[in-house]
Amino acid sequence: MKQILVTGGAGFIGSHLCERLLKEGNNVICMDNYFTGRKRNIVHLLNNPYFELVRHDITFPYYVEVDEIYNLACPASPVHYQFDPVSTLKTSVIGAINMLGLAKRVKARILQASTSEVYGDPIVHPQQESYWGNVNPIGLRSCYDEGKRCAETLFMDYHRQNNVDVKIIRIFNTYGSNMRPDDGRVVSNFIVQALKGEDLTIYGDGTQTRSFQYVDDLVEGMIRMMATENFTGPVNLGNPGEFTMLELAEIVIRMTGSKSKITFMPLPSDDPRQRKPDITLAKEKLNGWEPKVKLEEGLKPTIEYFRNL
Ligand SMILES: NC(=O)c1ccc[n+]([C@@H]2O[C@H](COP(=O)([O-])OP(=O)(O)OC[C@H]3O[C@@H](n4cnc5c(N)ncnc54)[C@H](O)[C@@H]3O)[C@@H](O)[C@H]2O)c1
Predict the structure, then answer these.
(1) CA 202 to centroid of ligand 1, rounded, Å
(2) Using an 8 Å Cβ cutoff, are 6 and 17 in contact?
(3) pTM greater than 0.90 (yes/no)
(4) Is residue 262 a contact partner of residue 205, using CB atoms and an 8 Å limit?
(5) Catalytic residue among 70, 81, 119, 144
(6) What is the pLDDT of residues 162-182, one digit of tens each?
(7) Measured in Å, how far apart are the chain's first and last C-alpha atoms?
(8) pLDDT score, position 247
């Protein structure tokens, strides 16, 4: 039985990951400070004797004997990471230092949940891992983007300097149950607005595209990445299927049976025009991994989750 630490385990992705790791027969320690995560996401796991919940802020050192660490702690949506940008940076940077120090000490394998935001507003499309990105270092999104870029640097330096067994994944837009209704991300925004019968807000003219990955596909990719030998990444995990915001809005309105209309608002600063992962490397290194869940298939349980909230 492996002892696995999941930081940010009470969040959207972390809660799904904890559930899957338990199903596979592991001991799971879920660490979270509940900044954006919620107990409700993991309350159904509390009676499982192999699950432990720890309230802890990752910017402070944490000592535990583990075999693997999944480092997810970090607010992920602009409304939350811009609420306290200095704290966001500390979470990414000091959090990474603390977890890498722990991994070094106990010889654990450690996976960093990085992000497609490291590509910034990309001038290369679709984005391959070899692309270095186009990031504004002083903008409103920089606390997140640059924090994640610095965390990647730390991961690679601990690997080169101290031989820490590191894995870096770059997650593209992911959706599913346990997302917060107030996180301002496009999928949750649209679903909540449609269910309330409010107009769906599109920022810009709606022609900007995004790719949407269902959370189960991501978790599968994370577990496969953790199991790789002699491969640090970074590797993109995302769904290459591209949709414009306008298309997504129309699908959500249809699937919720809502009478909502679509309204347009000005584009926020540094909002990328296009985002689409190139997943060639993931397919090659992760035993043919690729997203299996189609957008409408994944939206169904997600809409149900929001309806029941
Ligand atoms: N959801 C996506 O589409 C997406 C895309 C790219 C990258 N990611 C990354 O995946 C990870 C998980 O994202 P998510 O969507 O589940 O977001 P989330 O906000 O639901 O989860 C983040 C979790 O980290 C916890 N946390 C924040 N600061 C902390 C701190 N200082 N100490 C301890 N815990 C702390 C939060 O309470 C929350 O439970 C994040 O690192 C995020 O950057 C997510």
Answers:
(1) 24
(2) yes
(3) yes
(4) no
(5) 144
(6) 999 999 999 999 999 999 999
(7) 35
(8) 96
